[in-house]
């Protein structure tokens, strides 16, 4: 594959340079393993490019269950349309959960994870791409929101985070108010 192409006598375009210096995080995957990624992606997840290459995307998800369920959920979408897009919670190397917008493209719809291209935009960036509510969550609210998305109960969330179920309820009530949701089910829909 050529990295530099020219069309109609115009100056050559260096596609490899464009990929590695894009202002959004980009990663190429093969069967849900990082084959290559750009500097923005590496910086977003706080992991060096060399450390990411060859690693499963699972390390970037809040939990193994979240990774597995997401794969099951998006496989039919990628198979049918060849692309997928959503807002979701991901995890940086230091454990911090954060909201991203993800767009994914499958090269082969009949085997959607064979070769994929993913674009990630951190929704808390300072450059106007921000989702105010997602960006205004406290770290504890983000932790609880991520576990609510996984359909965990208050007791399960408390155990996972080492806090009481009553404390979970306090944070969940704050999130319900913040998002104008009448129930946990409605809150999860708004978070997703």
Entry keywords:
single chain, elongated, Beta-Lactamase, 192 residues, alpha+beta, five-stranded antiparallel sheet, 21% strand, Arc Repressor Mutant, subunit A, two-stranded antiparallel ribbon, 9 helices
Written account of the structure:
There is one protein chain. The chain has helices at residues 15-20, 39-45, 49-52, 64-81, 132-135, 139-149, 154-161, 165-179, 184-191, and strands spanning 4-5, 13-14, 25-30, 33-37, 83-91, 97-106, 116-122. By secondary structure, the chain is an alpha+beta fold. It has two domains: 4-122, Beta-Lactamase (2-Layer Sandwich), CATH 3.30.450; 137-191, Arc Repressor Mutant, subunit A, CATH 1.10.10.10. The chain has a five-stranded antiparallel β-sheet. The longest helix is centred in the middle third of the chain and has 18 residues, at 64-81. The relative contact order is 0.10.
User: SS-based structural class?
Assistant: alpha+beta
Overall structural domain count: 2
Strand line-up in the sheet with most strands = 4-3-7-6-5
What value does the Rg take, in angstroms? 19 Å
**CATH domain topology of the largest domain:** Beta-Lactamase
Element-level helix/strand string: EEHEEHHHEEEHHHHH
Shape: elongated
**Count of DSSP H/I helices:** 9
Low-confidence stretches: 126-132
Strand content: 15-25%
Helix content: 40-55%
